[in-house]
Specification:
The complex is a heterodimer of chains A (about 325) and B (about 325). Chain A is mostly helical and about 325 residues long. Chain A is about 65% helix and about 5% strand. The longest helix of chain A is centred in the middle third of the chain and has 37 residues, at about 105-140. With about 325 residues, chain B is mainly α. The chains are: A mainly alpha (about 325), B mainly alpha (about 325). Chains A and B meet through helix 5, helix 6, helix 10, helix 11 and helix 12 of A and helix 1, helix 6, helix 7, helix 8 and helix 10 of B.
Amino acid sequence: MPVGVPKERIQGRNPWYLAWLRLRRNKVALGCGVLFILIVLFCLAAPLWADHVAHTGPNDNHITDTVSIGGVDTDVVAPDGTPLGPGLHARYLLGADQNGRDVMVRLLYGGRTSIYIGAAAALVTTVLAVIVALLAGYYRGWMDAVLSRILDVIWAFPVLLLGIALGTALAVGGLNLGVLSIAGDSIWIPILIIGLVYVPYMARPLRGEILALREKEFVEAAVAQGMGPLRIMTGELLPNIISTVIVFFTLNIANNMLLESALSFLGAGVRPPNASWGTMISDGYQLIYTAPHLTIVPGLLIVVTVLTLNVFGDGLRDALDPKARIRLEH
Amino acid sequence: MVRFAARRLIGMVAVLFAISVIVFLIFNVIPNSDPAVRIAGKNANPELIARVSADLGLDQPLPIQYLTLMKQIFTGTLTSYASNRNVVDQIIDGLPATFSLCIGAAVIWMTLAVLFGYLSSVHAGKFADRALTVLSLIGISMPVFWLAAILLYFFTFKVELFPTGSYVPLTEDPLGWVYHLALPWFTLAVLFIGFYSRVLRSNMLDGMNEDYVRTARAKGLSERQVRIRHVLRNSMIPVITLFGLDFGMVVGGGAILTETVYNLNGVGLYAGEAIRSLDLPPLMAVTMFGAFFIVLFNTLVDIAYAALDPRIRLGEAAPV
């Protein structure tokens, strides 16, 4: 046996494993990722809390009910309209709103809606943006010109105004496109709107990456081997941008959640009585001076969730794309 | 250069045209309801609906309706379905509040973002940097309207430090103008402070490794001069690009939430009201107004880039 060669063969490490090693060292990003998963799990457990602790559903009104707190019967909603505040009691842990609904229960169910919309819309955006980027970047020429102009038009729309315009127009009678039919109060309306308006923000940088990759030798080799366009796009180009796509997807969920809350606040997102963190703030804001907890609590949840996603997304970027990172290890 | 600018301006007009058609279609094709029925009211008989429809020109084919609407926007004779008031006048009335809000906020966000970004990069990795990074991350993770609501609650109700919104014209009462706009300015600026300071910080840290920094140091410049005169100036370029795009966006509809919560009677508040009543003419006009500013600032950024960097004139858009 030659000298200097270790007995065991050196294992090849794939890029994903290397990325994981880098991510593992970034404790803050990892912690945020775990916290986000915990928030999702808590929201998924909403029915458990509703059935076994609070004993009420997210849309059940209790305006005239009383609840026993420390042995004293207290109105859920006082005669002057002020709802019960937060306190250490199993029912109404975070107080009630103006309809006597349990804020904790609504918060958990609302979180489901908000996170679901954020993630589903991110999926819509990502799929559309990747398709547009691949087509424009692979075919170039007129295909790129047409797709880029369409992106320019969506880009030039004020995001919020486009979202609101579509939201209000669709809420009147839902969407009917032959096979596809969505009711006006379905949460798929905000999902599709949010998914659509952010497409240019993701498709433009991805297109740039594909255009650069298109010039590389491996694409030329694939063409020379007689690979079809579809196979080159999915087998050669897509794997090379997938790390960017993953980072964009994570950060996009965060942006989507913010846009959902803004649309719901303006009445063009999730329809009442369905709870989302945005609609809860919108409802609660009417009582900001007498019952600030109705505004503060759902907003804090949005901030924490979006923050964890942003920090985790940044960490992912550092881990997946070491060239773009600015590491400061003194 | 002139040819480049002309091409960008023609492109701008084309994009605006496309947007106007899309907005028109969104409100005329998607809703499964006839605007004439909504305007005529709940108990309207078919004759009344037909008369409203004819009055507003809603019985005409869509292309004619579109042309009429555009003609009215450009001649300033467009009136709202809901209130019968002139839309263009309403938008012009909203301009002072909207521009006061946006320009003031822009001054705050650029100043603080440059300051924070600079400090962060100077103290990279140390406590000040970490604290500023956490703050800016929180800043970009906050819903704007929520921040507005919370600030209103704490600073106008809990501690009566500021008045509750409303707009006071600068010409009437300069001090009152600042006093009433202080909270809205800050609210609108927070997101951008967080975002820009992070961009500037990473640009400056990248810039510190460039060759020109070594040259500057070799010439004997102090570290501070190297940072401010060389690295900061170069790192500002992408920030200025972002600023051009974002300022257009804020003027063109980004301020709706801030204006709504603080009850500033600007263009955004007007847009919000039009949305709630599904009032097509103002919505059409406001969206066009917003798109105009976004496209205008996009184009200005492109042209400014081309003036500074000849290579871009041959390509297409400014790098973002």
